[in-house]
Sequence to fold (311 residues):
Amino acid sequence: MAQAAAVAKPPAPPRRRRASATPRRLPYLLIGPAALLMLGFIAYPVISVFYYSLQHYNPTKPWRNGFAGLDNFVKIFTDDAVFWDTLVFSAKWVFVEVGLQLLFGLALALIVNQTFVGRGIGRALVFSPWAVSGVLTSAIWVLLYNSQTGVTRYLADMGIGSYGTSWLSDTSTVFSAAVVADLWRGVPFFAILILADLQSVSKDLYEAAEVDGASRLKQFWHITLPHLKDAIILSTLLRAVWEFNNVDLLYTLTGGGPAGETTTLPLYIANTSVDAHDFGYASALTTVAFVILLFCSIVYLRLSKFGGENK
Fold:
């Protein structure tokens, strides 16, 4: 009986071990606790603000607490003249501060980007105000504006102005005085971001422009400024949001006065919640401010074409 010859079979390839899912999930497991904490610290306050905006909530008048529906929002837009005044002043404050800070920050960044003796010390002096807290900045400028020991007294000694003058209590000078104080702290923010972006501009572009006979002004307009576009857009947006929400400096300098001349919307919200204890109405004001900032940010990014190619 003929028996089929056994054909030698090639050895089976080794089984590939299934990749463990643990290494893939490890990064998520490591950042999970921090992400949950951030979500809790951010999501809970936001949700609670939206919740209380629909409530009458004043701990000093518990008998009036309860569901308000849209009453708080109706009051904001129809029966609260202070809201519109503070909103207009907030827009004025943001426009003036961000515009001046960008202008001076860009100038400082261009200066300290040059090579000169003592550049390191110069950069440190330019950036140092940004390391000072808002409350400490306010305390410094309160002393500078003090009518007895500040700048106005030394100006009066030189025959400029009169003794006892307080720029922070005069409605004609309080805005300018507050702007100068905040400029001292805000300009370094733009200088830092713009200088960091200036470091990445290729020297070859400027050398080629010089060979073609381009002036310094044309080099700035056609090389430097287009390269700084995204940095300028991002920095102005961030600073606009921060300036809109500025409370510490104005609260310490002026307290919103005199006669409410320097009361921004966030400062009005703080006074409504902390002083008047009307947390429901303050939450509604906060919700409106959040929607305004979100809408303006989206429109600004769309119009500025942030992240798009420069043409």
